[in-house]
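Reading group handout, session on sequence-to-structure problems. Before we discuss, look at one worked example. The prompt was deliberately terse, the way you'd type it at a terminal:

> structure ABC transporter permease

The input record follows.
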Amino acid sequence: MYYIKKLLKMLFSIYLIGTISFLLLELIPGDPALAILGVESSAEDVAILRESLGLNKSFIERYFIWGKGVLLGDFGNSFKYGEPVSKLILDRLPLTIEIAILTILIVLLVSIPLSFAIHKIKKASIKRVLDFIIGLFISIPSFWLGIISMFLFSVILRWFSVGYNNSISSLILPCIVIAIPNIGVFTSYIKSNLDIEMREEYIKYLYVNGVKRFWLNLYILKNSIIPVIPLVGIMLIDLITGVVIIEQIFSIPGIGRLMITAVINRDLPLIQGLIFYTSVVLVIINFGIDIVYSIVDPRIRSERE
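And the output record:
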């Protein structure tokens, strides 16, 4: 019953967000046909384009046409590119997913060992310095870090390419830039959970009964990572829905960059498609996180049923 309720909430959220996004964009002042052709275009050309784009239909007709298209996976054609919106989104989706996976791997591979290493340090002064560095990582603006990293590692040292060049190696630097603030957040969070978990009675019991340090660390890590699962979901949402600033700096043709282009050109079908896409991704990831969380910690499911 818990999973059915979650599924129904997810479907209703997708419908509601899609409808709201359609309504908001319809209320934006101005004529998309005029924006495409320019202010110097003739009234006849504007009228012809409005008819070809379906803008001459009533609001209710456009809403039902859009809703039917969404169910069939058809968001119409982009005003700017003249291609199906779904194709434009799907063309950029693999690259965005690639960035998300690489970034999450970097964050987890660095933050988990780093949390244990910091936790083992006994000297208070060293811990304070490390806490300051972690706070610095969290607070560094991504646009500044991206520009400095590109200038240092791509222009001066030439370790990486300047911008994206259709290779995985050209994604390493952008992913590191995206990962640095998240490493700070994850390390701080896991370290705090480790401090709490180490004081639990079951740890003392296992230690007294001769459980090896490796297995003891696995128990501690498992219970310390459970509260971090929602953070992984939040980071995944940010990455898949488009890291706009980093994509602009490194010229990565991802979802975020496509959204900027759509907004600048007032490409309503593309904007609606992207809003719907990001909304669906957000809701599905939240649904997945709830399911994983309830499996890892069954108490969550039993409390809400």
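Points for discussion. First: Residues 85-120 form the longest helix (36 residues). Second: DSSP finds 15 helices and no strands in the chain.
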